[in-house]
Amino acid sequence: MQARAASIERLRALRPHGPARTAFAGLFAATFLCFLAIGAVLPALPRYVKGPMGAGDIAVGVVMGAFALTALVGRPLGGRIADRRGRKLVFCAGLLFCVAAGALLFLPSVPGLIFARFIVGIGDGWVFTAGVTWIVDLAPDHRRGQAIGIYGLSIWGGLTLGAILGEGAYALGGYSAVWILASVGPLLGLAVASVVPEVRRERREDAQPVLAAPQVTGFASPRARGLGGWIPRESVRPGIALGLANIGYGTMGAFIVLLLDWRGIGHGAIAFVAFSGALLLTRAGLSRLPDQVGARMTVLVSGVLEGLGLIGLAAAQSLPVALAAAALMGVGMSLIFPALATLTVEGVVPERRGAALGGFTAFFDIGFGLGAPLSGLIVSLGDGGNYPAAFAASGVLAFLGALIGWRSTRQPVVPTYA
């Protein structure tokens, strides 16, 4: 009877309580509002650079990918600060950076736009890292993958609806209306986040997390100390897989509108909505898949589907084919992040989750930061117009990322109870 009572008490500790549910809902809403604003800018910015700014495809790639440079540094730094000073501080500071970045889009030059993207990179990185670490704190151990996946709906939901809202704002008020929206969204998110309670899931006082001896397979030595001591070693292999997958997202975000315009198809914003809509629906319906079938297998299948979608976009000659390929890519990308994040947090004690997830999510920015300008370079080779080649190359890299993610594993942190 005592053993059964102890088991029941342990299960109750794993069940979400009232403050945790309130915190989750607040985090979801604040993150959604922030990424709604970021998504509104995505269809407008490439046109703005090539139109009113009169710049070329390489400039488009540099402007779109510039945020990744500051986010690359900002995510690990934000994670470390979140471990020491609290998740809420970093989350709210990130929202403030995003507000400032929206206002800076009014600077009338390509260097001004690059500077604005640098600032949004810090904000995006801090909101993302502090938010996902906070969510992991709140989630039961056996449902981390699902919690990360559901939280990710706020990001992709914001990007999806933001693209539609941005097109509407542009139709009503031009680029200025889009830039205003880019500041209003995170400002509203800050108002929500300011009243979110900073709580963590309760554990028994006698619970002692024990880190099993790491047993690593893959592409790095188990004695490696990460990248220069800045990115924790637990983050490196899952991070490389994420970065390779995200090169495709960088290509999509920067060039889907221009690819379909070049083909004479048009409706690039609709294709982006098909991509992110499929991602949303897949994640909403299959959010527990990494927990049920395993994170490694989820990464492998998802990466292959993403690669096929990118190659389909490269070959698309009509809008229905382009939409189907974009949706397939979205299905593929939907579970890559939660599956790889699950692999990352399984290898660290709770006190180092912020640093580990900050290092892991930095590879998101490496992928986007490389994908956009490298695709711009591919497009500009020869006589220009090599958009299909850029998408096909990104598809091949997605296949490589799937293989690396599948080959990477770590023995998890096992909580024991006295």
From TrEMBL:
<feature type="transmembrane region" description="Helical">
    <location>
        <begin position="148"/>
        <end position="171"/>
    </location>
</feature>
<feature type="transmembrane region" description="Helical">
    <location>
        <begin position="240"/>
        <end position="259"/>
    </location>
</feature>
<protein>
    <submittedName>
        <fullName>Unannotated protein</fullName>
    </submittedName>
</protein>
<feature type="transmembrane region" description="Helical">
    <location>
        <begin position="177"/>
        <end position="196"/>
    </location>
</feature>
<feature type="transmembrane region" description="Helical">
    <location>
        <begin position="114"/>
        <end position="136"/>
    </location>
</feature>
<feature type="transmembrane region" description="Helical">
    <location>
        <begin position="298"/>
        <end position="316"/>
    </location>
</feature>
<keyword id="KW-0472">Membrane</keyword>
<feature type="transmembrane region" description="Helical">
    <location>
        <begin position="322"/>
        <end position="343"/>
    </location>
</feature>
<feature type="domain" description="Major facilitator superfamily (MFS) profile">
    <location>
        <begin position="23"/>
        <end position="413"/>
    </location>
</feature>
<keyword id="KW-0812">Transmembrane</keyword>
<feature type="transmembrane region" description="Helical">
    <location>
        <begin position="89"/>
        <end position="108"/>
    </location>
</feature>
<dbReference type="Pfam" id="PF07690">
    <property type="entry name" value="MFS_1"/>
</dbReference>
<dbReference type="InterPro" id="IPR011701">
    <property type="entry name" value="MFS"/>
</dbReference>
<feature type="transmembrane region" description="Helical">
    <location>
        <begin position="21"/>
        <end position="46"/>
    </location>
</feature>
<keyword id="KW-1133">Transmembrane helix</keyword>
<dbReference type="InterPro" id="IPR036259">
    <property type="entry name" value="MFS_trans_sf"/>
</dbReference>
<dbReference type="InterPro" id="IPR052714">
    <property type="entry name" value="MFS_Exporter"/>
</dbReference>
<feature type="transmembrane region" description="Helical">
    <location>
        <begin position="355"/>
        <end position="381"/>
    </location>
</feature>
<feature type="transmembrane region" description="Helical">
    <location>
        <begin position="387"/>
        <end position="406"/>
    </location>
</feature>
<dbReference type="GO" id="GO:0022857">
    <property type="term" value="F:transmembrane transporter activity"/>
</dbReference>
<feature type="transmembrane region" description="Helical">
    <location>
        <begin position="265"/>
        <end position="286"/>
    </location>
</feature>
<dbReference type="InterPro" id="IPR020846">
    <property type="entry name" value="MFS_dom"/>
</dbReference>
<feature type="transmembrane region" description="Helical">
    <location>
        <begin position="58"/>
        <end position="77"/>
    </location>
</feature>
